[in-house]
Amino acid sequence: MTFEELRAHPTLLRALQMRGYEQPTPVQSAVLAPEHAARDLMVSAETGSGKTVAFGLALAPTLLGEKPAFDAPKRPRALVLAPTRELAMQVQRELGWLYHHANMRSVACVGGMGMQLQLKLLHDGVHLVVGTPGRLCDHIERGALSLDALEALVIDEADEMLDMGFRDELERIIAAAPRDRRTLMFSATLPPEIARLARTWLTDPMRITATPPQQQHRDIEYRVHVIAGREREHAVVNVLRASEAQGTIVFCTTREGVTRLAASLSERGFACVAISGELSQPERTRALQALRDGRAKVLVATDVAARGLDLPDVGLVVQADLPNDPQAFQHRSGRTGRAGRKGVSVLLVPAERKRGAERLLFDAHIKAVWSDVPDAAAIRTRDEARLVESLTAGDPPEEEDLALARRVLEKVSPEQLAARLVALERQKLPDPEDLPLTVAAAEAEARYANAPRRYDTRGPSAPRGRFEPRGYGGDRYAPAPSYGGDRFAPPSRDDRGPPRAAPAGDSAWFTLNVGRTQNADPKWIIPALCRRGGITKSDIGAIRVSEHETRFEILGRAAQSFEELAQRPDRQDPRLQIERSAAAPRPGPPSGGYGREPGHFGPPGKRGK
Predict the structure, then answer these.
(1) Which of 346-350, 402-406, 518-522, 582-586 has the lowest mean pLDDT?
(2) Which residue among 72, 167, 491, 526 is least enclosed by CB atoms within 10 Å?
(3) For the chain, how many structural domains are there in total?
(4) Are 513 and 565 within one domain?
(5) What Cα–Cα distance (Å) separates residue 496 from each residue in 230, 501, 505?
């Protein structure tokens, strides 16, 4: 159906036509359906589905009725709640052009921007207020914002606001609004808590699922690259170099990670900007505008950029750090593949975290293609093809350019001229990176996939059982040996074979300078040892925790490389000191301590699974 057939308000229809809107999106069709008119709505729709225009159209009958424009502004008649400053300001812009011919006056009440200007605009009178919960509560408490005349309330990205801890603020705002208002709640997901709150905040709401689950991810191609943790930054470089996307967002978990990666990419020659929670609103606005107008090609950001940003030309999302949960993964990925455009979401996974990545994808109901990171040779080959195409394609040159070319050819040969042009073009491109540790991890994975299975005696064609050790099997991405995480180089190739049961005399004991008084526990000791010494869990034998120290056994030939790597300074855990013991401890765990023999993990007397 068209907007005319859905009976969109004539004034708003004019704005849609001027913007080139012809066919409504599914969420816009759903909220404009005649059976939903004037009702409270609880809508779930994926990001980039046109939700802002949808609720703008849905509110027109309530705010305008049959009138072509608003009367003089007084107290606000509509309020839109958004979780972030960027989303609130984007909503204000979208509704601004949609209601432009209706003479609507609006104000964005968000933190990080001048309070006095917001107070003045509220005092002068507005028709619509868009804001974040914290700043709106400030204005209500000051008496600057009255909701007595409110006719419509929109709660946008409700699940995100609850995740950010805004429930108390939402309760206070809703309590200050009239009960006979119309309320529309939009959320990317509708978990049980959202549904329960909707029954409290809304009156007999109609639930709408605007995007069926089977259609949610159809415009996004998901790729997973397994990498060595130490080469994460180099892997990001190669993914960016291999892509032809107009714009890219690279997600990091922390502000420090954003700052470090953005600086590194800028030094390499990428047109890069960054945003995180520590930046002021003007700084964040300038960074986003640089990406929108093409001055920047790469945005490095925390999850503050994962929702609500209007960046239509983003063709690639790179998740340099694993997201915390499936929702964060979907929201990050949702920055691309918007409004019918195709996009790619790349997840970089350290080898030791492949199991977690598998669970993440499973919980998010995402099918991804697992593949190697583009290597430097492949990128250079692609560069050459692009250069040849760019230098030979295009319209015939102008006579003035031909004349200059002839003058140049009088001094240099055609071959030399072409070589210099190629060199100039290559200088514009950041150099791709070699990934030796990632290649080594892939080789180790292949060896593990083909290794015999120690505990599976049902034959090579039988499915793997629950007792099969990690690192074995062919088609699952099980953790490959850790090569020291982000700190150390891998051990020699001879020490990276599949784990084996070492003879009793072929192991070594070590001492760790923490015990029960420092809350030593195998649950965190084992990962620390694997990272510190470039080993796997299977290389660790018995663990004995005493009062002030921990003794542990390293099996087989891994002991020698472990001793060498464990002596290096560790910036992540500088207080942990590891020394080789002269002899094994007495049999059995110390009184009240923890023991861990192969297959035994936990308090004494209890068997771990």
Answers:
(1) 582-586
(2) 72
(3) 4
(4) yes
(5) 17, 14, 20
From residue 262, alpha-carbon distances to 90, 250, 444 in Å are 24, 9, 31
User: Does 550 reside within a domain?
Assistant: yes
In single-letter form, the type of residue at position 124 comes to D
Q: Which residues contact 332 (CB under 8 A, 6 or more apart)?
A: 249, 251, 303, 306, 317, 319, 323, 345
Which of 268-277, 375-384, 461-470 bottoms out in mean pLDDT, i.e. has the lowest? 461-470
Asked whether residue 185 falls in the same domain as residue 321, the answer is no
Between 568 and 461, the higher pLDDT residue:
568
Determine the pLDDT at residue 107. 95
Long-range contacts of 278-287 (CB under 8 A, 24+ apart): 280/112, 281/85, 281/110, 281/111, 281/112, 281/113, 284/85, 284/86, 285/89
Which tens digits make up the pLDDT trace of 250-283? 999 998 999 999 999 999 999 999 988 777 778 8
- Same domain (yes/no): 308, 393: no
C-alpha to C-alpha distance for 36 and 200, rounded to whole angstroms: 19
Using the predicted structure, report yes or no on whether residue 346 has a pLDDT greater than 60: yes
Are 330 and 187 spatial neighbours (Cβ–Cβ below 8 Å)? no
**Residue 338, CA distances (Å) to 276, 364, 384 in order:** 22, 18, 31
Query: What stretches of 547-600 show up as alpha helix (H) in DSSP?
Result: 558-566
* Percent of the chain whose predicted confidence (pLDDT) is above 90: 33
State how far the Cα of 157 lies from the Cα of 84, in Å rounded to an integer.
10
Report whether 545 contacts 520 (CB < 8 A). yes
Cα dist. 372→351, 369, 463 in Å? 12, 10, 26
> Rounded to whole angstroms, what are the CA distances from 41 to 24, 91, 189, 198, 583?
18, 18, 14, 9, 71
- Considering the entire predicted model, what is its pTM? 0.58
562 and 485, same domain (yes or no)? yes
- Tens of pLDDT, residue by residue over 149-176, are 999 999 998 888 887 788 899 999 999 9
CA distances from 139 to 108, 148, 156, 161 (A): 12, 14, 19, 19
Give the residue from 356, 373, 390 where a domain finishes.
373
> Can you give the CATH number for the domain in which 557 is found?
3.30.70.330
Q: Are 445 and 497 in contact (CB under 8 A)?
A: no
Residues 311/248, Cβ–Cβ less than 8 Å: no
Together in a domain, 208 and 197: yes
Tell whether 473 is covered by a domain: no
Same domain, 164 and 224: no
In a domain, 444, yes or no: no
Q: What's the CATH number where 312 sits?
A: 3.40.50.300
Range of the domain at 397: 378-427
Of the three residues 214, 246, 261, the one that is the final residue of a domain is 214
Q: What is the pLDDT of residue 487?
A: 33
Does residue 468 sit within a domain? no
538 and 550 share a domain? yes
Structure tokens at 503: 């003879």
Domain match, 492 and 409 both: no
